[in-house]
Design brief:
The complex is a heterodimer. By secondary structure, chain A is mainly alpha-helical. Chain A is 73% helix and 0% strand. In chain A, helix 2 runs parallel beside helix 6. Helix content of chain B is 31%, strand content 25%. The chains are: A mainly alpha, B alpha/beta.
């Protein structure tokens, strides 16, 4: 297994796009942190609780529905598998490392570790930004941040594994990219929106099972105050995370099974 | 030593590889011949477990996917450009080397050996097909393996490169390694291979040494040329020969020896401008052997009259 891990680590760090995507993810998240802390400084924190603003700043706006780190890490995941077919490297890869499950496990471990470390680094950078502009980080170690921030790391990790699974499932990059952008950013929003139309209220029970939306619950910092338009009866933080994790596991499991079974 | 037993691959309604069994011996170059689309690449992919099908292949007694750090045992070159375009050639090899505990020093050594030392930090997207083939050979040689499987390694190489590849493979074989190299360039195989595995439409046509292949699949013919040779046909056929008209009016006579054809021309009083025997080259033997199984003609037809032993037209 150590040979496979060495291979995958070498593969990942000899790819220019790895550095680009890490850089874009870290910088974009940091810019969101700068933006949020500055806006709060200017207009004051009365409009929203400071701990919620702090969470938004630290996770780089991921809880707003713009998860830069998660998307960049998911693309690294897609490249980890999809590139093998896009550039035909699966042939030399399998002649250097013919044990297919070992190869995929190594990819999962190395890419997961990269995603977790990068997300934690991003959190630390953003925390530094918060200290620079606010001089403090109110509620950092209290509920709900003590769960929402680890939740953000878990969210990014699962998002990354969905990407890796899609690259392996579609054996290429373009279709996996389309799915990873289209489903969370458009399709799930559309279904949630349509569920609010009275004639389509049969969609309501579906909403809590929408994987990326459920995953976003991992990062939630507050319960909605006031009467919601439609009560989607969403799962709690970790149960919703479980929905997202099961979705990732299904994609990765099917892709892994097919990879073991199909011609390379 | 490679032992392939009952290799079989089916794509929907097409049988691509039909129960192929053969041995590839160490110490010689074994050519793997077949027309385009005859199943050579599929066979090699089956052997390495890249494609799934029937049968098994053992490399010195081991299945490929059970070999730990396989590049140290079996080197393979299958596709022309299986590289990420922006990862440097050296890093591509370092990546594969990492899975097989091969040092960076060895990576640099093989890159020098294949003549890519100066461009080793360049990206393969800027490589010509010939350079890509050299990188592919470097990849195959990385672990200094005892067995090499190379699919059309001379594709895209210039004449100098082909000559070099031929010498390299012969030298590697003389060191006792097992070399299995596919090609549709028959003249190339004639100069390089000692043994042949010839397939057509996925089935075995011949497995043995080159001389036997030529002997088995060719017959010597006699070419008779002259102003009135058509008049000689009846007499030749009466003597038991098969006679065909050549493209420029000459007669191509089989099943009758040269001196008997000459004697017959003398007794019939037919003026001759040419009376020569023609023995087939490997290329013709190949055409004869795979003629009915060919999907695409791999090369131009050979000259009507070839010198014994054929010519290398590379």
């Amino acid at each position: 297994m150590s040979d496979a891990l060495r291979f995958e680590w070498m593969r990942l760090r000899t790819l220019r796009s790895t550095y680009w995507l890490l850089g874009v993810g870290l910088v974009a998240s940091a810019l969101i942190a700068v933006l949020i802390t500055l806006v709060v400084n200017v207009v004051g924190g009365e409009e929203a609780p400071m701990d919620e603003m702090l969470a938004f700043a630290l996770n780089g706006g991921a809880a707003f529905g713009i998860p830069f780190m998660a998307v960049c890490m998911a693309i690294i995941g897609i490249f980890a598998t999809g590139h093998e077919w896009r550039h035909g490297t699966i042939q030399p890869t399998l002649t250097a490392l013919p044990q297919r499950s070992r190869l995929i496990l190594a990819k999962v471990l190395v890419v997961s570790a990269t995603a977790v470390v990068a997300t934690v680094v991003s959190l630390l950078i953003n925390l530094g930004i918060v200290f620079v502009f606010w001089g403090e980080a109110p509620g950092l170690l209290d509920d709900p941040l003590n769960q929402a921030l680890p939740g953000y790391v878990v969210y990014t990790l699962i998002y990354t594994l969905v990407g890796l699974g899609l690259g392996l499932l579609f054996r290429g990059v373009p279709l996996a990219l389309v799915v990873i952008f289209l489903v969370p950013l458009i399709l799930e929003g559309l279904i949630s929106g349509l569920a609010m139309v009275p004639a389509l209220d049969w969609l309501v029970p579906v909403v809590k099972f929408l994987p990326f939306s459920a995953g976003a619950q991992l990062m939630s910092t507050s319960t909605f105050e006031g009467e919601p338009v439609v009560d989607f009866d969403l799962f709690s933080r970790w149960a919703a995370g479980g929905v997202f994790a099961v979705f990732a596991a299904i994609i990765l499991g099917v892709a892994w099974y097919l990879f073991k079974k199909r011609d390379a | 030593m490679i032992t392939a037993k009952g290799l079989y691959k089916r794509y929907r309604n097409t049988v691509a590889v039909d129960h192929l069994s053969f041995d590839v011996k160490p110490g010689v170059v074994t050519g793997f011949l077949g027309p385009n689309g005859s199943g050579k690449s599929t066979t090699m992919r089956l052997m390495l477990g890249l494609d799934y099908g029937g049968g098994e292949t053992l490399f010195d007694g081991q299945a490929f996917d059970s070999i730990r750090r396989p590049m140290n045992e079996v080197g393979a070159l299958l596709e022309a450009k299986p590289f990420h375009p922006t990862r440097s050639a050296r890093n591509h090899l370092r990546m594969l080397a990492a899975a097989n505990r091969i040092s960076d020093a060895r990576v640099d050594e093989v890159m020098e050996f294949v003549g890519l030392g100066e461009v080793r930090r360049k990206k393969p997207k800027g490589y010509s097909l010939g350079m890509a083939q050299r990188l592919g050979l470097a990849q195959a040689l990385l672990g200094d393996p005892k067995i090499l499987l190379l699919d059309e390694p001379t594709n895209g190489l210039d004449p100098h490169g082909i000559h070099w590849m031929r010498d390299v493979l012969k030298r590697l074989a003389s060191e006792g390694r097992t070399i299995f190299v596919s090609s549709h360039l028959l003249s190339e195989m004639q100069l390089m291979a000692d043994e042949l595995v010839v397939i057509g439409r996925g089935t075995m046509i011949f497995n043995g040494d080159v001389a036997t292949f030529v002997r088995e699949f060719t017959q010597s013919t006699v070419v008779v040329r002259g102003p009135e040779v058509a008049g000689l046909s009846a007499a030749l056929e009466a003597a038991g020969a098969s006679v065909a008209a050549g493209p420029t009016g000459e007669l191509v006579v089989s099943d009758l020896e040269l001196d008997k054809v000459g004697h017959l021309a003398f007794t019939e009083g037919v003026e001759l401008h040419e009376l020569s025997s023609r023995s087939a080259s490997l290329e013709e033997a190949f055409m004869s052997a795979t003629g009915s199984s060919e999907q695409f003609v791999a090369q131009e037809p050979v000259q009507p009259i070839a010198q014994e032993g054929g010519t290398a037209d590379e």
